[in-house]
Amino acid sequence: MARLSPDNVTLALEIIGRYPRPKSALIPLLHLAQEQDGHLTDDAMAHIAELVGVTPAEVLGTASFYEMFKMEPVGRYVVNICTNIACQLLGGEELLEHAEHRLGVRPGQTTPDGLFTVEDVECIAACTEAPCLQVNYRYFHRITHDEFDQLVDDLAAGRRDDIPPHGTLARVRQHIPPERRAGCVLPEDTATPVWIASASTEEAEA
Amino acid sequence: MAITDAPKIITSRLGYDDSHTINRYVATGGYQALRKALTMSPAAVAEQVKAASLLGRGGAGFPAGVKWGLAPADVWPRYLVVNGDESEPGTYKDRILMERDPHQLIEGVLLACYAIGAGQAFLYVRGEMALAQERIAEALNDAYQAGYVGKGILGTDYSIDVVLTWGAGAYIVGEETALIESLEGNRGMPRLKPPFFPAAKGLYMQPTIVNNVETLSNLPWIVANGGEAFAALGAEGSKGTRMFAVSGHVRNPGVFEVEYGVTTFRDLIYAPVYAGGIRGDHQLKAFIPGGGSAPWFFEEHLDLPLEKVTVDKAGSMLGSGAIVVMDDTTDAVKACLRLVRFYARESCGKCTPCREGTTWLERILQRILDGHGRPSDLELLLDVSDNISPGLTWPPKQTTICPLGPSATAPIASALGRFRDEFEARITVAEQARTSVPVELKAPSHA
Ligand SMILES: Cc1cc2nc3c(=O)[nH]c(=O)nc-3n(C[C@H](O)[C@H](O)[C@H](O)COP(=O)(O)O)c2cc1C
Ligand code: SF4
Ligand code: FES
For residues A130 and A142, is the Cβ–Cβ distance under 8 A? Predict the structure, then answer.
């Protein structure tokens, strides 16, 4: 599978340029690779290693720590159902069970048509809106079993184009216009910040 | 009931549909505090924050002004890292602030960086929060264009880049030193403190201030109105207002900004303007006062004010402002297991008592719930807990690198301390089953 596309390389270089140390861009770049391919491929990780200047093993070492990075293909829609405490109290586990029956898979598995992966997840910061879930990290609050079925039908029928395929997170990217950029401050840049220095000069003069 | 008319300091814009836009922000007084600060010296801005006695809202409740002062003098560069990793069970407030008032947060970041002399700021958002990432990206793009962020801010010599970055799913990354590791592109495993207190040795081993999203969102109001005005709200030891998420078995779950230190748990849980009381005809069984890591409270704690010192003394914490209410239908064993499972899953594995201990605690609780518990299991739970957090005291002691391990023992000490009979009942049933059908119980194999 794929290395990063030329457009994504351009984006990757822009992202790397924002950090004092290139390796700091690793997680954002892994997200970019996952956006491109739906999961992380060995080729993309090797390509990221080249761009960042570390070994592929280091890239894998970081990637494998984080749950959102998928080393194997997952469904077009990853359905994360929260069963942590606030959701458990209000039917999160029953919702998960319903989802397992409706889709015929256990948590962590993908439907044979490649459309849905179901996951049993920890608190997603929507506790007052329990039970809740995310589809590709988009929230659905206070969801009933019927609403869940409707959502699955809509997704399967392609009626939810507000939800991008798995891998895409923010569809708006930060872009710093070159003329507005203050620039990276490297650990080696030991000068006193200008505004701090000028404030102490003023103080000394006063 | 103490329902006060304290102003909304951080949630004032949430009534607007377009609260996240730069136009709404500027039209409602946004970026005025930044303009004001730029006419003041950085030290004077820091002084206002100190006068406000603003406590950190990320969990530990450390005063922001004091933390800023811990960065060693004249060591440059310094960095600011914004902790937007919100994932403590029950916690829901930073996501609201990031999605619905991102400019308020950005202005807070700019004020903090100006005051402490940070050379660059990194705004680390939890990986699972796609909308928050979009809203902050859009807000930053607009703020750069408008001259509020970047080079020569509002025509002054103050320049700083605010970089949006995000995680990829790991609760432990909310711990500040793990967050820094993650920001350096590594596995999110905590560093030992000492020596790695971020204010002294943080990002790239430089002095780094890590502050929570809600903490920083208070700064525009504090600078605009003065630290004294902020400190006039609340009570001794807990100033200003604070967001609390009240979830679980209440009529009207929600997130409420209330006056800190004055409002009580009873107000928040029962007042019609807040959570409206326990659902149906049910009674309160227990509540978690400050996120999954906090020991549970009960009926007798309802009249405690939402005030740090008082709650700490009573044996728990306000933590991340997350109140989870359980009514009398709640199964204490099940609730306890669910919380412990969380810590077992999220343990980063760096230290043995936490990695092994949380896994064992989960397994023992699971077998009790499944009807395979043994009479010795309750002591075993306490013994394993004691290996992670000696003495099971409050505040907890730890044999671990970070407080995640000890957090797993809080629900056990609480549930077992108060509802031991529920655990025993399940074990008695298991014992009866065992004597009628003799089965050899296998020790759980290690994963
Ligand atoms: C296991 C663990 C998880 C944490 N998660 C978060 C979190 O998600 N968000 C947060 O702001 N602070 C979290 N903290 C607290 C941070 O380490 C740190 O104290 C906080 O970000 C400092 O900001 P404040 O002083 O403004 O509160 C966590 C701490 C621990 C031990
Ligand atoms: S206590 Fe747990 S989470 Fe914290 S460093 Fe040790 S193993 Fe990691
Ligand atoms: S417990 Fe489910 S979102 Fe927090």
Answer: yes
Interatomic CA distance for residues B303 and B309, integer angstroms: 14
Helices and strands (H, E) in chain B, number of each type: 17, 10
Mutation test residue for ligand 3: of B247, B249, B255, B320, the one with most atoms within 8 Å of CB: B247
ipTM for the whole complex: 0.97
CB of B45 sitting under 6 A from ligand 1: no
Q: How far apart are CA A146 and CA B229, in angstroms?
A: 50
Task: Considering only the beta carbons, identify the residue of B42, B165, B253 that sits closest to A128.
Answer: B253
Q: Are B401 and B380 in contact (CB under 8 A)?
A: no
Per-residue model confidence as pLDDT tens for chain B (447 residues): 568 889 999 999 999 999 999 999 999 999 999 999 999 999 999 999 999 999 999 999 999 999 999 999 999 999 999 999 999 999 999 999 999 999 999 999 999 999 999 999 999 999 999 999 999 999 999 999 999 999 999 999 999 999 999 999 999 999 999 999 999 999 999 999 999 999 999 999 999 999 999 999 999 999 999 999 999 999 988 999 999 999 999 999 999 999 999 999 999 999 999 999 999 999 999 999 999 999 999 999 999 999 999 999 999 999 999 999 999 999 999 999 999 999 999 999 999 999 999 999 999 999 999 999 999 999 999 999 999 999 999 999 999 999 999 999 999 999 999 999 999 999 998 888 887 755 566 666 665
Written as one string, the DSSP assignment of B36-53 is HHHTS-HHHHHHHHHHHT
The domain defined by B22-230 folds into Rossmann fold (3.40.50)
State the closest ligand 2 atom to the C-alpha of B346, by its place in the atom list counted from 1: 3
How far is A43 from chain B, CA to nearest CA, in Å?
19
Strands laid side by side in the B284-288 sheet: B254-259, B241-248, B322-327, B284-288
Fold of the A6-71 domain: Arc Repressor Mutant, subunit A (1.10.10)
Quick one: CATH architecture of A77-156? 3-Layer(aba) Sandwich (3.40)
Residue A161, SS3 per DSSP: coil
**Using alpha carbons only, what angle is made at residue B322 by residues B319 and B323, rounded to the nearest 5 degrees?**
115
Residues 126-185 of A with CB under 8 A from B: 126-130, 134, 136-139, 169-177, 179-185
B/e letters for B201-234, b = 16+ CB within 10 Å, e = fewer, are bbbbebbbbbbbbbbbbbbbbbbbbebebbbebb
Q: Are strands B284-288 and B161-166 parallel, antiparallel or unpaired?
A: unpaired
d(CA B55, CA B70): 15
Please, where are the H alpha helices in B53-101?
Answer: 64-69, 94-100
CA–CA gap between residue B128 and residue B95 (Å, rounded): 10
Strand, coil or helix: B379: helix
Q: Where are the domains of chain B?
A: 22-230, 235-327, 332-434
CA of B171 to the centre of ligand 1 (A): 10
Q: HSE-up of B27 (CA within 13 Å, CB side)?
A: 9
Reduced 3-state DSSP string for B164-210: EEECCCCHHHHCHHHHHHHHCCCCCCCCCCCCCCCCCCCHHHCCEEE
Say whether B185 and A21 touch across the interface (CB within 8 A).
yes
Provide the residue ranges of all domains of chain A, joining segments of one domain with +.
6-71, 77-156
